[in-house]
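[scheduler] slot 2 assigned
[scheduler] job type: sequence-to-structure, two independent chains
[scheduler] chain ordering preserved from manifest
[runner] begin chain α
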Amino acid sequence: MVDQPRDIAEQRDAAVQADAEEASAAAAADARQAEEEAAQVVEQDLEELQARAAQRDEYLALAQRTQADFENFRKRATRDAQAAEARGIAKVARELLPALDNLERALAAAEAEEMGTAAGPNGGDAGHVHAGGGQTEHHLTAGIRLVQQDLVAALERVGIEPFSPKGETFDPNEHEAMVQQPVEGAESGTVVEVYQQGYRLNGSIIRPARVVVAA
């Protein structure tokens, strides 16, 4: 009967130890479950962040493409407007250039006539004989010159400039050969005379110069 209390104590200790182990196992299980749940939450948050980042990148790429498309459209619209303006200017210029040519021919003829009148029929000074007529002709020449200068200035303001390639090498992109003939002292392919000057619009040829070329 002496061993009975010891047996009871051992049983109690065993029961306490079993309860402790069970509690420890339960706590460990709860901890593992909590860790797993926390890991799942973190994984879900990470996936959501990645999805948002991907969506942000997609929106950013879309915005960049839209901006690039708009910039290309703006540049294309500007180029188209400039090209249309240049075509309009060139069309008007081509219609005006013959009138300018006529003015220049009239001016050259009037100046030549003035010089002939001033020299007189026998080379003398005939100004005192035709003073009134000479004055009128001088005013007419001055008027033609003024109109010619105003027209040239108006063309220059919109980018149209004349060019006279005498002495240059013949360029079929800029010159139209009216005659090709041997010319003493001139290298073959050189422009030796300009029948009609050419015109450029902002560097582009709108009328080639008509020239005589050395053979």
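[runner] end chain α
[runner] begin chain β
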Amino acid sequence: MTILALALAAGGLAASQVRSSIEEVESRVGAPTPVVVARQDIPGGTRLEPQMLERVLSVQEIPERFVPPDSLGAPAEAAGLRVAVPLAAGSYVTVGHLETGVARGGPAGPELAPGERVVEVPVAAGAIGAAPPGTRVDVLVTTSPESGGGRTYVALQKVELLDARSGAGNVGAAGAEPATGVTAALRVTLEQAVMLTAAQNFAQEIRLLVRSPADRRRIGPTSIRAADL
């Protein structure tokens, strides 16, 4: 009985030491983070059709410290895009390795996966004007005071920016002052396109927030009313 108790105690101590070692390593290099890698060699110019993603791409976990800044967190993020350069098996698949379809899509426009749409919306000028195609953004909508008292809410998260061009005289809701801003093209679903178009009719301002490629979190519904400020 004593031997069994000692064995159990030793096992518990060993497990505790392993946990401590893991926590120490994670404190230095970060927690394991999923990244997309090529499962096999992928020739340049290959279009990543949704039905082939499982065959050519896989997900590995690496310490957060070593995650490429423009890495993908899930194969679905590459659906419908074309590989810009040859990728060797085991290579990270990053935004820089993929063509968004805007710069090289030709007269037909960006290449879209089934169910995807391109929606253009006037947005507030700022950092978004310098953001390259492929940047992931969150969409904030601020409604006018006449539209139920006015509020700001997160309409969409982590959508792909296809293009951004300067424009003057963008107008939101009725009565809003014309403003110099940017017209942004976003890759969205049909449902998201309808929602953004409807929101634009009541918006005083639509603003895009550039997000870190490493930030894959999604927040819950977030809204602030003007009356609460």
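[runner] end chain β
[qc] chain β: The chain has two domains: 32-99, 114-228.
[scheduler] slot 2 released
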